[in-house]
Amino acid sequence: MNTKELIIRLIKEELRNKRLMHSLEELGFDCTFFTLNISRVVLELAGFSAITDEMQDWYFQQIEKALVEITFWNLNEKLDKWALTIYVELLEKRLKGKSSPQKDVVTNESVSHALP
Q1: pTM of the full predicted structure?
Q2: CA distance 93 to 48
Q3: pLDDT, tens digit, 9 for 90 and up, residues 38-96
Q4: For the chain, how big is the Rg over CA atoms in Å?
Q5: Where are the alpha helices (DSSP H) in the chain?
């Protein structure tokens, strides 16, 4: 599994977990302790070395946007679609950060983990 496949897989698993957690919360369960906390790993693998609160908020917004469309009846189809969509958006955001000074900084070390 290469880095691109790993990132997409992690995004899919985060989406799957969040869909389950949201559904259980709608039924009245407290799922605070069972939520995956892998956003930082995803962002680091995608080449972001300076991960700010703004960056994490942006990432969580992408996840929440995907969850609107994902249900248990279309889970596999939509997980694939949205994981790839979020992956592409991450790459675009990282590339924009390279061309203009922003808080998301890519270092030589993180470039070695960069994706094709």
Answers
A1: 0.80
A2: 10
A3: 999 999 999 998 889 999 999 999 999 999 999 889 998 999 999 999 999 999 999 88
A4: 15
A5: 3-26, 39-45, 53-69, 75-99, 108-111
Task: Supply 114's token pair.
Answer: 């960069």
DSSP 47: T
25 within 8 A of 70, measured Cβ to Cβ: no
Q: How far is CA 33 from CA 21, 23, 30, in A?
A: 10, 15, 8
Using the 8-state DSSP alphabet, how is residue 94 labeled? H
Size of the chain in residues? 116
What residue ranges do the domains of the chain occupy?
A: 3-104
Alpha carbons 87 and 66: distance in angstroms, whole number:
12
